[in-house]
Write a structure and sequence with these properties.
Blueprint: H1 6-9, E1 16-20, H2 26-33, E2 37-42, H3 45-60, E3 69-74, E4 87-93, H4 102-112, E5 113-124, H5 126-135, H6 138-141, H7 152-161, E6 175-182, H8 186-196, H9 204-219, H10 222-235, E7 238-244
Parallel strand pairs: 1-2, 1-4, 2-3, 4-5
Antiparallel strand pairs: 5-7, 6-7
Helix pairs in contact: 5-8, 8-9
GO biological process, one term: methylation
Organism: Nocardioides astragali
GO molecular function, one term: methyltransferase activity
Length: about 260
């Protein structure tokens, strides 16, 4: 299921886009279907190999527009192997909460985004996430797990300051343009998992709720879409923030 709204991001065919921390590739696949020139970036070589296979399968099945391109790149979020301003749009979905040096990762995202480009960042929402942490230490103490819980204000502050120059002048300070919430039906599932044991997949309540989520993902029935519209703003598991990089560098004397 998608977390980012690509219409809100402003994605257009032919644009060069980065899915940073792509994981299994769900957002990269959607951008490819929309005709973009996609780079799926991650540090997990095995997942990237699977993403590459899916890119090829999509192309062979005729699921992407003519001219669309897609590739994978392995690397470190703290030192992105791309030129300044290389990408028109960037997605970083559910990744920053795993990175200890998140400010450094954000600075890299800002660096490789072109002036006028847009950035979407999604992270677990504060309220559902704090419930998970209170219910289970195993939820976040696992290797590669979540290392922080963001408030919207904290993350907006970190991103909007990421483009400032070393002397504190505005530089290419990012502009916050809005937020959404997603996956309201998923929060109760994780509360259940944390309460009964995050590895206890055989618990009857967890199994029953998992079937509901599979139904949502596979069939997207009208009733669950309606439930999502109600639950997303209340308990949506993910928070999505949108930003734009200014077209021109402000005059420091006016700051």
């Amino acid at each position: 299921m998608l977390t980012v709204d690509f219409d809100r991001l402003g994605l257009r065919p032919g644009e060069r886009v980065l899915d940073m921390g792509c994981g299994a590739g769900r957002h990269a696949f959607e951008m490819y279907k929309r005709g973009a020139d996609v780079i799926a970036f991650d540090q997990d070589a095995d997942e990237l190999a699977t993403v590459r296979e899916w890119f090829a399968a999509m192309r062979d099945a005729g699921e992407v527009p003519a001219g669309a391109e897609a590739d994978v790149k392995e690397g470190d979020a703290l030192a992105l192997p791309f030129a300044d301003g290389e990408f028109d749009r960037i997605v970083a979905a559910e990744v920053l909460e795993h990175i200890h040096a998140d400010v450094d990762a954000i600075k890299e995202l800002v660096r490789v985004l072109r002036p006028g480009g847009t950035l979407a960042i999604s992270v677990p929402r504060w309220l559902p996430e704090i419930v998970n942490w209170k219910l289970s230490d195993d939820y976040h103490n696992a290797e590669g797990g979540h290392v922080r819980i963001y408030t919207a204000e904290e993350l907006v502050d970190k991103v909007t300051k990421a483009g400032r120059s070393n002397d504190g002048t505005p530089g290419d300070a990012m502009v916050f343009t809005g937020k959404d919430y997603a996956h309201g039906l998923h929060s109760p599932y994780w509360w259940i998992k944390c309460a009964v044991g995050v590895t206890n997949d055989d618990h009857p309540l967890a199994k029953a709720y998992h079937k509901l989520l599979v139904w949502e993902i596979m069939k997207n029935p009208r009733a669950l879409r309606a439930a999502g519209r109600v639950l997303d703003p209340l308990i949506g598991k993910s928070m999505v923030l949108y930003f734009t990089k200014p077209m021109t560098t402000p005059d420091a004397s006016l700051a």
